[in-house]
Amino acid sequence: MFDIVGKRYWYFLLSALVLVPGLIALLLWGLNLSIDFTGGALLELQFQNPAKVLQPAEITSQLSEIGYPGSLAQSSSDNVVLIRTKALTQDEKNTIEHALETTYGPFVENRFESVGPSVGEAVTQRAVYAVAMAAVGILLYLAFAFRHVPNPFRYGTAAILAMLHDVFVVLGLAALAGHFLHWEVDALFLTALLTVIGFSVHDTIVVFDRIRENMRRHRGEPFADIVNHSIIQTLDRSINTQLTALFTLVALSLFGGVTIKQFVLWLIIGIVSGTYSSIFNASQILVVWENKEYERFLPFLRRGEQKQVAA
Prior knowledge:
With 311 residues, the chain is of the alpha+beta class. The protein has helices at residues 8-28, 35-38, 56-65, 90-104, 120-145, 153-180, 187-217, 223-255, 261-290, 297-310, and strands at 40-47, 72-76, 80-85, 107-115. The chain is 68% helix and 9% strand.
């Protein structure tokens, strides 16, 4: 039998190597917010006889090439295109219109106005509140579901820590991508983040449920051995389930167009992180807690405090 649990501190170290750079980037640079959060300008153009099919992805790419990355384009009936971009001066608007006219032909400007953020601070705060309420709900639900095993609240706490691990992995990588690649965080990113939370908790509960069953079947065995056996039993199911989702997401990333590439990428990163944290973090936290291994660090911390006082 593979000793997965015995290498738990290596898994914690790997998580730290991924999390720490992202957290530093998040503190230093924050997230590169798109116009969904910051507001901008709305331009509605109706083309008379477009020289080519109006593809939103191509329009978005063209706007990025002339200096307006993060712009959003939507096409509708009657050859109408809605463009949402950062706040524009009259000269900047003329530059965009000239570029589009050169590519697609003459048009009529139906509307040009400044708009507020579609997501905004209020909606973002509500999303944070929703995550907090979900965390409390997860804690209470798992405490109730595992009420017949010792220390049921540990399972809820471990699931929440694994969930936060996945959230900060995505946020940290988004901060790095925003600074170095100029990727922007938009409304779809918020959707991806909430989806990742759901995947993370679901996979963690599957592993925890098998631990609960094996605690009844293998009474008297060391808790670490029970957890290790449970992980191995659920490993195939977890990997196969996530691969099914990943195959679909990779196909979307390759053939789904420019407008959803980043959204799909965040989902892929979140699902991979969720699978990893469920197997290699959440379950290992239970073992560390059960064996009270955290007490090993307390004397070290106390010695450090005593040295500071003596100095």
